Protein 1
Amino acid sequence: MERVKLSDDIEISRLVYGMWRLTDDPSHSTEATIAKLDACLEQGITTIDQANIYGAYTAEAEFGKALRESPGLRQQIEIVSKCDIVWPAGRFADHRVKHYDTSRAHIVACVEQSLRDLGTDYIDLLLIHRPDPLMDQEETGSTLDALIDQGKIKGAGVSNFRPWDIELLQSAMSHRLVTNQIELSLANHHPLVEGDVAHLQRHRCPIMAWSPLAGGELFENHSLNAALETVATRLGSIADAVAIAWLLAHPAKIVPVLGTNNIERIRKLHAATQISMDRETWFELYTAALGREVA
Ligand SMILES: NC(=O)c1ccc[n+]([C@@H]2O[C@H](COP(=O)([O-])OP(=O)(O)OC[C@H]3O[C@@H](n4cnc5c(N)ncnc54)[C@H](OP(=O)(O)O)[C@@H]3O)[C@@H](O)[C@H]2O)c1
């Protein structure tokens, strides 16, 4: 599978597997997590997306159990994690209000906890999960720079940031922010025309697309699903692969972060990378997503 270079120190796979839903899986177990990781690795999907908040602050420890039980696995993968959301649950149960915290003390404590939960001594990529209206760019930026310099993270990026949020944080950092992870799919395509994608593309900054199948909602939109099926039949593929290929076809270097818990679906994720989508087919799907032809 193709690799995407984010910096001199970080390369990720063209498709990423996300663990937001890991602990929702009714058949969840360490063995099941290892089976999912094996299915990813067999296809060259080496990058795993996590966040400290997933599974109400338990998913990283669950992933860590799989890493501890599979010697050598850590060296074969890249781990993306995120922090700054404080949700009154689990280890943050004593808080009253859900909020964001981009202070030095909070970020450092989260990274240390993630490293313990994962059982690793570095995170490949740390993202600030959500833009914090109280972010002090000097404090947050110097904290991320220091974590990189200390080798606790190989690089830093952001998630759900608008272009001006990125500019603000980047202005106070010596290291480059290497990605923005945003919601992007045939159901959530507004960032393609509202400046978010253009801004990242202009800075040659690969984009990570979360919920690239809109959590399965794509297939509930009748006309969009029909268009996906039509294209899939024509290309000899399957509808979910076509929806992912629609993102891969964009010149901005969009890296879909997939979240299925279904092992059979995981085994077929690479099908998207085998599709070459021409411009007219791209617009055929965009038209179905818009519900009208372009102006
Ligand atoms: N940065 C952020 O703020 C943020 C926010 C949300 C998510 N994320 C990341 O993005 C990852 C992916 O999010 P997501 O899980 O919403 O992504 P997704 O791949 O768009 O959705 C997966 C969901 O769709 C369902 N689904 C229904 N039909 C499907 C089909 N034909 N093929 C595949 N899945 C189908 C899956 O069910 P089954 O399990 O039954 O297949 C699963 O519940 C997360 O794990 C997380 O790492 C990041």
Protein 2
Amino acid sequence: MSVIEELAHAVTLPASWYGADPGIWEHERRTIFGREWLLIGREAELPEPGSYLTETIAGSPIFVIRDREGELRAFHNVCRHRAGPILWDGRGKCDILRCRYHGWVYDTKGALRRTPEFGEAAEFDKQDFGLFPLQVGIWRGLIFVNLSADAEPLDQAMLALTEETAAFPIESYHFHSRAEHEIACNWKTYVDNYAEGYHVQAMHPGLDREIDPKQYQVVLKDRHTVHQAPQRDGANYSGLWLWRFPNLAINIYPTGMNIERMMPMGPNRTKLVYSFFFQDVSPAAETKIAAAIGASLEVTKEDVQICEAVQRNLDTGLYETGRLSPRHENGVWYFQKLVREALAAA
Ligand code: FES
Ligand SMILES: [Fe+2]
């Protein structure tokens, strides 16, 4: 079937996949979030040896640290003794990694160095109890991790996006601020919503004054999509809105960029993390920056409101599946197709 034919027949994912069926959540943790390269921060956040940051990826606590030689390393935040946390959540700097529970000490390469007061355990070799490593890489100043040991290299995974963003000097943008929103919905409820401009007219009156939702287009690419929305005033818009499977959006504007991550925290909880960057972050630019962030926040509030309401309705058990708009919901169809494929490949 061609894409047009498939779209004409497109049916949404079952409502039970949005949290009610706990098996789907476990399945997604392994087959999607356990296999994809996922953005977790900026390289500049780890400026020197010992700098670290923690994150939770679909229920798996992890951390990234810069080792003594300056290399980035990533590990599960799980001690090999009795699964205590190596680092409390957050960012910081440390010389050695000392488990918070009973004080086992690891070096920044993950090797177990000391087990204070442990006693003489039989057939116990420290070498067998290093931290569980994961893959880490840098793409355009951004840190990505992959929980899978046999994932394709990051450069290869990001090839399509490297080409897509080649014209934009995003490394030169200055980080301005970060904003987080906890949302009571499944991560797919939010991504579905991000994937279409069909709801702009009804849900985003402010945005609707600026762009023409009838002409909102989502172009399907290689595991990512490009969103295009002509401005009502006919201004020549030179930005780029990108979404990449599973949970990353990069919105590049003529004056900066907003990176958005939809982090699944549980079957019914999602943390939306925004990082705002601008070309000019001088005090003189602050009024414009505040206006840009304010406009983004307004749209986000509207999206959160609708996604939480949709989630409550999906949870009732009344609605099972719906049909997708062939004109406006090709992005939703494509995202859901990638989810279906990932789960089927397991
Ligand atoms: S759990 Fe880490 S030292 Fe015991
Ligand atoms: Fe929206």
